[in-house]
Design a protein that fits this description.
By secondary structure, the protein is an alpha/beta fold. It has 11 helices and 12 strands. It has a single domain, classed as Spore Coat Polysaccharide Biosynthesis Protein SpsA, Chain A (Alpha-Beta Complex). The model has no long low-confidence stretch (mean pLDDT about 95). InterPro entries: Nucleotide-diphossugar_trans.
């Protein structure tokens, strides 16, 4: 109970302190072939502006596209219009997911892949802060190479073929039937070697994190849809509708880009309440861990001060 109260108090403090983001100069969006995409609602407007403006400050590229989860107000949209160079705002309700699941951020992923036909698209969560130059992201864009943050609790830190990933990720080198009953991420990873996707004989994978991911120009939703159908056929529709299947699919799509890459884990970091290295460049403050200590608030305030210079 106390933890919940503490988190609510820290969230209120964050919004109170970080509303200074509204006093920072507006961004000049560019039609340069890069799209910075996020799905947000009214409750995360302030942290989203911190995430969006801090990334753009260091990347110096792109225009913004936003998916409204249905809660953005006219006032929110006016603030976004002013600060982010009149971003295009899409509605979650308008997305046709086809045979893929509804919800669980599937609408976000499929829209990103549709947009990647013509632009390099970066998926950015609102609970992130870019804290320094991001040369690896710049290089990925220049090479038209997809990228992802490394996910949690994985011994495999690079993209590899699904057989190698399976050998290195499961006890004794092979998943058991019990692996299919756990969290949907592990359950899906346990059946990777069973997947058959027409036109993709040599499948690859990495356990990534969809909180920050780049999708190379020239893609579409075909591979994501095929993966969803193949995995859902094995795990069953009930399991495949669980939260987390979109993240596995995002990682799979990045891994099967011939030029796909994983951002260096020492500089592009998922924050779990632990001490950070000396020179982090990008921080993803996952879930309630963002309220551990005051790291999220302090990093956000540093970013806001930098934007004001």
């Amino acid at each position: 109970m106390w933890s919940g109260i503490e988190w609510r108090l820290k969230r209120a403090l964050y919004n109170q302190r970080c509303k200074a983001i509204f006093d920072t100069p507006p961004i000049e969006a560019r039609q340069d072939g890069v799209v910075l995409f996020s799905m947000i609602g009214t409750q995360v407007l302030i942290p989203y502006l911190v995430a969006a403006k801090s990334l753009h400050h260091h990347l110096r590229r792109g225009r913004f596209v936003i998916m409204d989860d249905g809660t953005l107000t006219d006032r929110d949209k006016a603030a976004l219009d002013h600060h982010l160079g009149r971003p295009r705002i899409l509605s979650l309700r308008d997305v046709d997911v086809g045979p893929c699941p509804h919800g669980g951020t599937w609408e976000r992923l499929l829209t990103i892949l549709d947009m990647a036909a013509d632009d390099y698209v970066i998926q950015l969560d609102s609970d992130t802060v870019t804290t320094g130059p991001v040369p690896e992201v710049v290089e990925a864009i220049a090479a038209n190479a997809s990228f992802t943050l490394l996910g949690a609790e994985t011994p495999v830190e690079a993209i590899t073929d699904v057989a190698d990933f399976t050998r290195r990720s499961f006890p004794d080198g092979a998943p058991t039937q019990e692996c299919r009953t756990g969290h949907i991420q592990g359950a899906t990873e346990s059946i990777l070697t069973e997947l058959v996707i027409t036109g993709w004989p040599d499948l690859r994978y990495v356990r990534g994190c969809s909180g920050f991911a780049g999708f190379a120009r020239g893609q579409n939703r075909q591979l994501a849809t095929a993966f969803s159908q193949a995995a859902g056929a094995i795990l069953g529709p009930k399991r495949w509708s669980e939260w987390g299947t979109e993240q596995v699919t995002s990682s799979f799509v990045v891994a099967n880009d011939p030029n796909g890459r994983v951002l260096p884990a020492g500089r592009y970091i998922n924050y779990w309440g632990e001490a950070l290295p000396a020179d982090p460049r990008f921080l993803h403050f996952i879930g309630t861990y963002r309220w551990h200590r005051f790291e999220y608030l302090n990093r956000s305030m540093q970013a806001i001060r930098l934007l004001g210079r």
